[in-house]
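Researcher: Quick test of sequence recovery. Tokens follow.
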């Protein structure tokens, strides 16, 4: 059992021990269904603190062949499905958290650091199965596959951290994308990838109209489709939690409901719901995990109509938006629509796909907009809003 190769089940075990845990294990039924198919490349993007890392830990615990995670899953929904035993603890797992490598690297280019660390662990597991002078991770995996026939489940958490945190370092971004392409798009990767599962806040970076990794199926806050149930807590799940805690669900609905996903499904923010129940009161929990300065910076961008759109949404309205031109990064803003689309991915707005509109999802997020606007030189606007 390694740090990055076959990391075991401890990460998911700690989540199960939490005071409040909502069973999202049925996402494994979907990933099991796409193993070794053309759809085995999956990218799930959602806002911070919406459970991305817990899901990644769950996938690692389930597929990792170095451990036996039966006891962790035996009481979860996935254990009742026909595919559960077929794939449980059957594959080598590579689990990489890009943010952790960013913190370890002295430069924004984390690719050499990632490759050295993972290849070193592969060398311990498979000392005779790839050449000693191999430094590139895709080459090592291809040689192991050729000699042993093994395939890998590759999980990359916070895949987009380079684009969010090193937004102006184009060289580092190009190096990183080149690494991902060689890992997931080059011909040998089709032989060694059993499943690729990426999580992040942003969808995969676009260049013009094409995705940099266009072989991935993407599930986003704009188009969550068959994975909509796993973006956050459903209304049914949330109501059960509040009923069990003997708390007012209707008040919680006002504060935390409002994220509209595919098929009209309403999703609640897991961070806010869990903290609200633990503290026995509703309030701002998710928005307190990041300063509103970042939101203020986006809404202060001088695009025609953006200010009017923000005001309209604060007072309960919605705004038309075209999300198609957004380049899925933090710098390529060309219009009001780009900013509004980014705010959907960040969790500050929600998207109605039927009407192609955006609006502020709930009371918690509306308070964050009010704080940002009041501190952005819009005092006369806020006076009018408060007066009304």
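Model:
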């Amino acid at each position: 059992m390694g740090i990055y190769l076959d990391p075991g089940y401890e990460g998911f075990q700690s989540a199960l021990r939490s005071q409040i845990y909502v069973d999202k294990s049925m996402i494994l039924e979907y990933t099991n269904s796409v193993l070794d198919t053309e759809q085995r490349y999956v990218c799930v993007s959602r806002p911070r603190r919406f459970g991305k890392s817990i899901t990644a830990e769950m996938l690692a615990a389930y597929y990792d062949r170095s451990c036996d995670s039966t006891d962790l899953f035996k009481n979860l929904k996935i254990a009742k499905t026909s595919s559960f035993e077929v794939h449980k603890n059957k594959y080598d797992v590579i689990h990489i958290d890009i943010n952790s490598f960013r913190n370890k690297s002295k430069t924004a280019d984390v690719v050499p650091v990632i490759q050295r660390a993972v290849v070193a662990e592969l060398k311990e597991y498979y000392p005779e199965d790839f050449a000693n002078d191999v430094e590139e991770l895709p080459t090592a995996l291809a040689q192991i596959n050729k000699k042993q026939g093994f395939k890998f489940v590759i999980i990359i958490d916070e895949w987009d951290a380079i684009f969010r945190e090193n937004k102006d370092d184009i060289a580092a971004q190009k190096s990183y994308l080149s690494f991902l392409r060689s890992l997931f798009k080059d011909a040998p990767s089709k032989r060694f990838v059993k499943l690729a599962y990426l999580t992040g806040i942003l969808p995969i970076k676009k260049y013009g109209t094409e995705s940099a990794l266009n072989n991935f199926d993407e599930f986003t806050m704009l188009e969550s489709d068959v994975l909509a149930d796993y973006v956050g807590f459903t209304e049914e799940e949330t109501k059960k939690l509040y009923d069990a805690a003997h708390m007012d669900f209707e008040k919680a609905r006002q504060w935390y409901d409002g994220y509209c996903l595919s098929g009209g499904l309403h999703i609640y923010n897991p961070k806010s719901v869990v903290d609200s129940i633990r503290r026995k009161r509703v309030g701002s929990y998710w928005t307190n995990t990041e300063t509103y300065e970042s939101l203020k910076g986006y809404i202060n961008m001088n695009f025609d109509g953006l200010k009017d759109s923000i005001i309209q949404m604060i007072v309960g309205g919605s705004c038309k938006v075209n999300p198609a031109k957004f380049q899925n990064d933090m710098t390529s803003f060309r219009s009001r629509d780009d900013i509004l689309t980014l705010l959907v991915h960040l969790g500050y707005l929600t998207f109605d796909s039927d009407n192609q509109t955006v609006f502020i999802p709930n009371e918690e997020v509306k308070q964050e907009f009010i704080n940002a606007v009041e501190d952005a030189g819009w005092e006369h606007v806020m006076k009018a809003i408060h007066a009304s």
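The radius of gyration is 22 Å.
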